[in-house]
Design brief:
The chain is of the alpha/beta class. It is built from 13 helices and 16 strands. The chain starts with 31 loop residues before the first strand and ends with a helix.
Amino acid sequence: MPPEHKPQQTLNQQPDNGPAPAPALAPTPPLIRVTQPHLPPLDEFIPYLEQIWESKFLTNGGQFHQQLEAALCEYLGVAHISLFANGTLALMTALQALGIEGEVITTPYSFVATSHALLWNGLQPVFADIDPVTFNLDPARIEAAITPRTTAIMPVHCYGIPCDVRAIERIARRHGLKVIYDAAHAFGVRQDGASILRHGDLSVLSFHATKVFNTFEGGAIICHDAATKRHIDLLKNFGIQDEQTVVAAGINGKMNEVSAAFGLLQLRGIDAALAQRRQIAAHYRRLLAAVPGIDPMPDMGDDANNSYFAVLVRDTYPISRDALHQKLHDAGIHARRYFYPLITHFPMYSAIPSAAPANLPHANVIANQVICLPIYPALDAQDVERIVGLLAAS
């Protein structure tokens, strides 16, 4: 029989041994979000939960609620604090506690909770422009926005950078206005050796999971005297004075015992967490000094809490802010354009005359340049270097 005919192989042809194995893929770097909650070891929280289970006391100002209020007053260096279920309820109650009416001057450069609290109280937000360096309300623009209907000012310590509190206080005294600081970003921030929370008639904190100090969800109002605290405590508990007496149209804003207990545990590690944030922010600054067109937020040194690490993407940078944001996302770096868009771009605010872009030139520019890079205690130096490397390679 003639030999079996086999097709001739070319030099580049391999024997048919089935499909070739897929090439090995490089490991995907872990997703890095703009923030990550700082959590203590779970086993340290269990004893607190066991006490709650044993007592059956879950809310209404239990032992952990009382202990956390006292501990926070001591840690923050403030006279009185009233805990809340979240920061938004605290903002809304602060406005109620001071009997604010009419118009309130506030910033367009913030999270919407700031201005939403005004609308929920039937108040008229009046937006003033920000300082392009600190991102906070510009005192000169505050004074220019005052009308006969103005009753209060609600500034924000943006990214934990203190407002010009002395200028704002002078304006408030001159015009007989109340000042409520939205201090959601400002836990632990100090100025001139003392807490920034000592300024204004009231200051409001957020203890949301994204904040440097969190109680899962939570918030607080800081005030200066016992009578105001008693009034705030009435308002956050339906206005109930005793078992048979209701004296005000309050709401249910109380913090529960689980969150309060968690806050007590969190407070034990807050100094270490803030120190880690300082180290990360300093590392960012060292590396970004060599990246033209990227300007970090002001450095407050040891008085800062580094709750966010915002940078501005200037026109001299090779690509746009939005292109950089997408590039980071594609690489698994979930930075945030925070705050973009401005509050004044949302439909419930855009028709307000003070929301017009011509009235807010600095706020509009900053909102289109800002990007917040990831920062949290567990972020390691290699991650920071990878993030900055992506910025430097654009």
